[in-house]
Amino acid sequence: MIGVVGGGIAGLAAAYRLQQRGHEVEVFEASEQLGGLAATYETAGDPVEQYYHHLSKSEGTILELAAELGVDVEWRYKSDAFYVDGRIYPMDKPWEILAYPYLSLYDTFRLGMLVSEIDVRGGRPRFDTYDDLEDFEDVPIREFLLEHTTRGVYEYFWEPLLDAKFGSRKADVSAAWLLGRVKFRGERDLLRGEQLGYVEGGFGRLLEALIEAVGRENITTGARVTELDASDGAVDSLTVETDDGTATRDVDAAIVAAMPNVLEDLTGYPCKIDFQGTVCGVLSLEQSLTDTYWLNLIDDAPFGVLIEHTNFIPEQRYGGEHLYYLASYVQEYDEQLWQLDDDEVEQLWLDGVADLFPHFDRESVNWMKIARNPRTAPVYERGYLDMVVPYDLSEEVAEDVYYAGMASRAQYPERSLDGAIEAGYACANLIE
Ligand SMILES: Cc1cc2nc3c(=O)[nH]c(=O)nc-3n(C[C@H](O)[C@H](O)[C@H](O)COP(=O)(O)OP(=O)(O)OC[C@H]3O[C@@H](n4cnc5c(N)ncnc54)[C@H](O)[C@@H]3O)c2cc1C
């Protein structure tokens, strides 16, 4: 039997692929709910993800898996905007970006060239400068943007996005991450912008289909793996704690599909990648506040981003509830936000919504739920690829130990469901 530690999408995908290859599998999930960061809340209609999720057309692995499991993915045009000084500036179409008053015509041209991956430094266009991301792995992002675009592009376009995503760690992020993100984007229609994907009925439907395919009898929830015994140079058992007590399960191989601190606790393998936490609220209102899906807040606000989910997926799917995500990444656990309890976060953030939108009516709040997790995204700092955890840990830990968690190669340059599935498959494919 192969033991899989973690019932997030990476662990479930690993189990699914192992079974296809003829192996017996058992998935152990510490919490009562499967899905990890892709777990959902109930609404008046379809369930909604606790943390915002969408797909891009370049993410082939998850799209293939959805098709294999008979789960439909729908594609919808997204709407992005910047909120500055009480005004919302749409930023999807070329003429909207041209109309953004904080960028000059020349700034917009340089931004357009960079996102089209054309290097126009020196007045001569070059099309291959950005082909090899590793060339930019050690280049600080600010230095890169000032050299390859303009100060205006840095200060009024990228810097606010970097503040929201990496906060006090923004100076550590590599230019390779930014270029990876630029390449990662999906197809763009000049007139209508970019399409994003969403599983019809929510990502919970994909999880359900995957759980059914793996078989509930092969998955144990409320089962925390506390030890991995590899004292003879190869893994031979996992110790699992449940409400019924502690049990030892013999295994032929083990895949750790959880954050690298779990791998370190189980095997001693140290991963140097720093992770950031996230506090993420889902707010259900009776009213719509904007016409935008993804609102980047350039003004000071107590949260980093406001996502009006029901401007992407219609509110009719949620029994008419207008759903919003409010989220902030957390770099240090002594930050004020991380110290607040859920009620305090809710009050702070609702006050923030009232400051941004004078027409916000507190009476229209149906409910708000806060999720928080101390490790939700790597800090993609310079030299990141040297710190990635290999799939096969036979040399570093012991024979038959594999790693499919967020510190693996497939989760670069951005962590995603697609990357998690790819990591799960990669480990499963290595097991004979
Ligand atoms: C705010 C936010 C926004 C995101 N947006 C997107 C997006 O738009 N598109 C996208 O594709 N992806 C997005 N992601 C990323 C995506 O959610 C993750 O990449 C993916 O869910 C990671 O899956 P995983 O299985 O590797 O890890 P996890 O989901 O973390 O699963 C690991 C599981 O292991 C369990 N576990 C831990 N320790 C043990 C133990 N000792 N024993 C047993 N079980 C254990 C945990 O309980 C957990 O269920 C987002 C994530 C966040 C936080």
TrEMBL record:
Gene3D superfamilies: FAD/NAD(P)-binding domain. Pfam families: Amino_oxidase. Residues 9-431 form the Amine oxidase domain. SUPFAM superfamilies: FAD/NAD(P)-binding domain. GO terms for molecular function: oxidoreductase activity. This is Protoporphyrinogen oxidase. The lineage of its organism: Archaea, Methanobacteriati, Methanobacteriota, Stenosarchaea group, Halobacteria.
